[in-house]
Each structure stands twice: as structure tokens, then as C-alpha cells.
Prior knowledge:
Elements: H1 2-22, E1 33-39, H2 44-58, E2 62-66, E3 74-79, H3 82-89, E4 95-98, H4 105-112, E5 126-129, E6 138-145, E7 150-155, E8 163-167, E9 171-175
Antiparallel strand pairs: 1-3, 1-4, 2-3, 5-6, 5-9, 6-7, 7-8
Amino acid sequence: MAEESSEEAQGQEAESQTSEAELTPVEKPPESQIYVVKTTSGQEANVAQLLYTRALANKLPIYAIMVTEELRGYVFVEAAGPHFVDDAASGVKHVKQRLHGIVSVSDLERYLVVRPIVEELNVDDLVEVIGGPLKGMRAKIVKVDRVKNEVTLELLEAAVTMPITVNADYVRLVSRAKQEREG
């Protein structure tokens, strides 16, 4: 009984070695590239959804579609070729054009890495409050507490300036503070 199981194990090993040798590498499809589609500002998510459904329906080799909040008016599409992007985008409402050329992944890395907003804020930066009862008001940053994810603001539109501490997620950077050059 022990001899039979050892013979079977040796036979299976031999089969796996021969099958690995007989396998031919599968041909890789041509390298995909990232293309940029210019859209109406504010309609990026709708365009991305329409491109996705068109790619599925027509079985186009579109591998990824990316929309960023920071870069309004543009949709990034990873596809096997520019003509596939053109096929998916033709006739879609809010699509203006496909920009000529390609974008490298290194150019998009800063949009792919999610950093807390508090990392980008500094003292004296101008921000707009985007949440809470002060929504829509502009303010100047007085203090940044990166550990607690909070910023202390002075409202620019208030009659009396007093410091207000809010969560950093409730502010949007409008402009950076002008840094004086030493020299």
C-alpha cells in the first residue's frame, strides 16, 4: 500500500513537471496607455459612468476610468489604443474631445495617493468653509493642528474677528499664503 502511494506521488510530480514545460506563455495584449478626455466641468462622473457602460456594452478594451476632484473637466481613461477611447466617447453628452498624447502613471500618482487635507494646509492660507453652519464663508488659517485634524480660522466676512476651530475636512483651500523671500 505504501509503495502504491509513493509511486502515485512520483507520477504526479512527473506530470506536473511535464505540463509546466509544455505550457507556452500567453501573449500579453499590447501595453495599455492612459488617455485624457476633456469634458464639461462638473460632469466628469456622469461621463465616466457613460464611458464605462459603453465599454461594457461594446466589449471595448478599456481597463480603467479615473475622475479626480482636484482636476475638473478631465477624465482619464486607460485603454489599449486611442481609437477605443474615441469609440466609447463618440456621441456622449458633455464630452468635448480626447486630448492628443498620453499621460504617464507618474503624472497621475499625486491624484492616486490620498492625503489628508490637513497635510496641505498652512498658517495664513485662505480657505473656504464647505460644511456646517459657516458654509460658503472665506477665512484665513491662524493655526493648524495636524494631530487632531483641526484648523483654527479667522472669518474674513465677519464683523468681529474671533478664532473658530473646525475640522480640516470642512475647509477647501482657495489660495496659498504668499511666502516672503529672504535674501
